[in-house]
């Protein structure tokens, strides 16, 4: 669930060297060396609640299985988790530090792809809820008026019936950051030092983000990362859809996805299903369901990796206006 993620702005330090701008990290050199998996919520923050589970539990189980599957399917790819236990990242005591910690882990790992796993919910109670409806009217004697004007009157009073409304919404959706919210992404890109070398030589000239070189470099990557995020996100949703899940497609959002903006790499947030629907919650808690969700993401990763590393243009087939807002 995204709502719980909002609030807290992730500040970043800008730190990269001119030499890495000139020589390092051409956007053309694309390899999927490191994938960062981010199990949503954790510790103090349970996320959304279903009837039998909380979001933080389900996202952790699916994330750990996804990590194992990546190691099996892509042995050359390194997997880094933002958390592997039910705890806030670095035992943070507030959401800001927790989200900042996640972005920092991803950036320090020099991730090539950031996958945040979440579960969805509607605003209604998990499972279902009672509502009232009018099923008829009956004559009812009532007093109207006040004091000496008070008199009896027959009125037509509605008759109500309670009925159960099942929480039926099911399905998946994948978020990417909004293209016009790229400034923070640019900061994160520069923070990450795309050259892949540690910046330890103090004799190297450090640049701040206001320099034209830094902005130019960041813009190049922003475009590439946005394209790759959209490409992978669309592949994930295609994969869910072809496996028979209801897919709500790829969506852009500017609220509640600070963690995506603060990572200097292509980043997606996958809502793997609704905990507010009884059957989907059971599916997401089952071995079978978790295995299928993981396999769907692996299928998408395989296509993404092939396209990225196979020399095929990574410009997404997905036209901009097909991305649902
Ligand atoms: Zn969530």
Report helical residue fraction: 25-40%
Bound molecules: zinc ion
Please, how many domains? Answer: 2
Number of helices: 8
Q: How large a portion of the residues is in β-strands, by DSSP E?
A: 15-25%
Q: Please, what is the average pLDDT?
A: 82
* CATH hierarchy: architecture of the largest domain: 3-Layer(aba) Sandwich
| Number of strand segments | 10
CA-atom Rg in angstroms:
25 Å
Shape: elongated
Structural class: alpha/beta
Unreliably modeled segments: 4-29, 193-207, 313-325
Strand order of the largest sheet: 3-2-4-10-7-9
Report the CATH C-level class of the largest domain: Alpha Beta
End-to-end separation: 17 Å
Question: How would a textbook summarize the main sheet?
Answer: 6 strands, mixed
**CATH fold field value of the largest domain:** Aminopeptidase
Pattern of helices and strands? EHEHEHEEEEHEHEHEHH
CATH superfamily of the largest domain: Zn-dependent exopeptidases
